[in-house]
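Researcher: If only I could read backbone structure tokens as easily as an amino acid sequence. Walk me, if you will, through where the backbone shape changes along the chain. I have put the entry right below:
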Amino acid sequence: MIEKIPEFKRTSWIIFCACSLIFLLSLFFWILNFPGIRRCFIYKSSNSDVLKIENRFESIFPVSGKINNYIDELLTGPISEHCCPVFAKGTRLKNCYLRDSKLYVNLSADVLKADAYNTDFREQIDLLKRNIFNNFKNIKEIEVFFDGKLPFEYLNIYKNENLNS
């Protein structure tokens, strides 16, 4: 004998299904329009030595990788006109890779477009490292290179070439 479902149970079941459907649709549209991962960018103020923080959203699954994408975005420079870029304009990331929680970053020689005698490259490298450490907790150590050479080795070669010319 087939048992009839009471009217109250049927109404509850319909309401439950409707609420579940609404929840699933809202979850789907939230995932579809998710802004991305919030990243923090630290830049030096152009007026003083004060550090300014910018927050931006990055893609969840960037094509070039999360760290590459972050460093590219950092080298692009600040959104605010009151901040200075970390390195000279035109500096780009040649490559970077992570091995055993140590990050190796190779930047282009365009870093040297700035006045090599008056620019504090150590401060700029420290700011780059600070940005990366703040956003990627799994990285314990960072090694920075300019065109495949250690920064201060490269700067000595660059300064000697300029003195000879």
Notes: The first helix runs from residue 7 to 32. The helical segments are 7-32, 66-76, 121-135, 151-164. The chain has a mean pLDDT of 84. The CA atoms of residues 158 and 164 lie 10 Å apart.
